[in-house]
Amino acid sequence: MFNFATFLDLPLIWYALIGVALFLYVLLDGFDLGVGILFPFAPSDQCRDRMMNSIAPFWDGNETWLVLGGGGLFAAFPLAYAILMPAFYIPVILMLLGLIFRGVAFEFRFKAVRSRRVWDYAFHFGSIVATFMQGMLLGAFVQGVKVDGRSFAGGPFDWLNAYSVMVGMALVFGYALLGATWLVMKTDGITQEWARRCAAYVLSYVGLFLAIVSISMPMMNPGVRALWFSLPNLYLLLPIPLCSVALLILIWRDLHKGKEYRPFFLSFGVFVTGYLGLGISLWPWLVPFQVTFRQAAAAGPSQSLLLVGTLVMLPVVLTYTGYCYYLFRGKTSHEAAY
Questions:
Q1: What is the DSSP string of 114-175?
Q2: The pTM is what?
Q3: For residue range 182-219, what is the model confidence (pLDDT) as tens digits?
Q4: What's the domain count of the chain?
Q5: Which residues of the chain have pLDDT under 50?
Q6: Domain residues for 313?
Q7: Stretch (H or E) spanning 271
């Protein structure tokens, strides 16, 4: 029987697949969560209709990548899953509840009349809770968790601290930037001008939080500090933060010059550089500073069987996603379209 494990570095492939899936989730679900964060501040109900219509064809498909990331972690790296889930049960449950609330709001808002305002706020607060919990998860994750042997050894609220709260706030502003630049690209008139002002406002906070997170991670961990500030690594890795600064400046200029499409893709670039820096800092840990991805990997035959299914379905999902974005290209109207 042919065995993929003999020819491929399966743990590395799955480590990369999960990393890419989570990154695609952050980018693709990030802008529609950002629209929800900005939702109640729109100038009118007609603007809110356009905002929701702009993401209605995409929001549920975007969450596919979260399923792939979480399911892949469970199947390909069961040890890491067994350690991380008990550490983060509470924020994960709160995040899922937030996603459920915003999903229900999509279904009910378009039909509601008297209770429309209720569903507006359900959509808004569901988006904020989901985003904030994702940020807190990230903040707690990069700090590491307590491990005893092969089990989580900490308490149920170890994830709740000042640093994780700060990262949660940072992600709220980051997603708001993605949402605002998405609306600049997908709408026009009053909605677009309001979104442009929102993007310019949150951009400064994104830059501030990005600087704080970039400085704090090396300060918290000597290994990360040695990685980034030792020679010649300092010269090799310096282009990453410099690219982040350049992208923020370009976004600012484009917003004030009336550009419609480029600010959104430049905002993607900011997340790319931030995610790349995070990935370099955490390599090769899957449970930060405790368990590497090779130590957490499932048996080779299990990973190879999972990879076969993934190689079949992943092109299908990518094709459908690309076609969906192509089909619903262009500006969005305020008329009900859900």
A1: TTHHHHHHHHHHHHHHHHHHHHHHHHHHHH---EETTEE-S-TTTT-SHHHHHHHHHHHHHH
A2: 0.92
A3: 999 999 889 999 999 999 999 999 999 999 988 888 88
A4: 1
A5: 1-2, 4
A6: 4-327
A7: helix 262-282
